[in-house]
């Protein structure tokens, strides 16, 4: 074919030279590609160490006292005891009842004048009338009066102000039988809780003969 043995060898030598030249060029262009596997594995560790050294250390945060556990009971502060308050003294009032009693046959007429001589006002008061003889079953009692047994009548005199005027009470009662005389006992059974030091002017006992005359108390 016109080719000698030498002609066949020349192209092979040139090819080998060209291959060697290309190997050198590739190694120079990619230096890391020729590095050994051990070298590639050690590189990240070196970079991590340099980063760790460059990063500033985190500042320590102050420790805050922990909140008390739920359900914990704190001791209550000592509270001084309230001072004893003395009980209020009862008010003083002097009630007075005056009037007259008149009796005839089986009838008894009573007139009462009630007043407060002070010094305190009285919100309500009641006067009691007790008779020595039983009263008739049927009676016409004034407003504010009621029977309290066979021979007793209670009458309210209402509130009595100090120097506020007198209250008038008029009763016309019938006895169960005719009598020559009758004894009437009158006193205060309620004065609103006031203290009355003078009981001589609100408690009376009157003997009234059946003559129709008025006997004062």
From TrEMBL:
Source species of the chain: Streptomyces cavourensis
Key words, A-Z: Signal
InterPro entries assigned: TAT_signal (IPR006311)
PROSITE patterns: TAT (PS51318)
First and last residue of the signal peptide: 1-19
Domain of life: Bacteria
Protein name, per record: DUF11 domain-containing protein
């Amino acid at each position: 074919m016109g080719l000698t043995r030498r002609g066949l060898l020349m192209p092979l030598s040139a090819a080998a030279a060209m291959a060697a030249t290309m190997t050198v060029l590739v190694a120079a262009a990619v230096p890391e590609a020729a590095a050994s596997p051990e070298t590639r594995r050690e590189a990240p560790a070196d970079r991590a160490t340099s980063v760790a050294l460059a990063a500033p250390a985190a500042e320590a945060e102050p420790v805050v006292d922990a909140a008390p556990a739920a359900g914990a009971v704190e001791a209550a502060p000592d509270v001084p005891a309230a001072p004893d308050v003395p009980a209020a003294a009862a008010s003083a009032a002097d009630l007075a009842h005056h009037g007259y009693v008149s009796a005839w046959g089986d009838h008894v007429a009573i007139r009462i004048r009630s007043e407060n001589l002070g010094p305190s006002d009285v919100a309500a008061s009641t006067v009691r009338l007790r008779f020595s003889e039983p009263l008739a079953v049927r009676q016409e009692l004034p407003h504010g009066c009621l029977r309290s047994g066979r021979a007793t009548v209670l009458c309210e005199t209402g509130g009595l102000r100090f120097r506020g005027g007198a209250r008038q009470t008029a009763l016309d009662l019938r006895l169960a039988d005719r009598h020559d005389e009758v004894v009437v006992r009158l006193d205060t059974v309620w004065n609103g809780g006031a203290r009355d030091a003078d009981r001589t002017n609100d408690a009376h006992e009157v003997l009234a003969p059946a003559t129709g005359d008025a006997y004062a108390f």
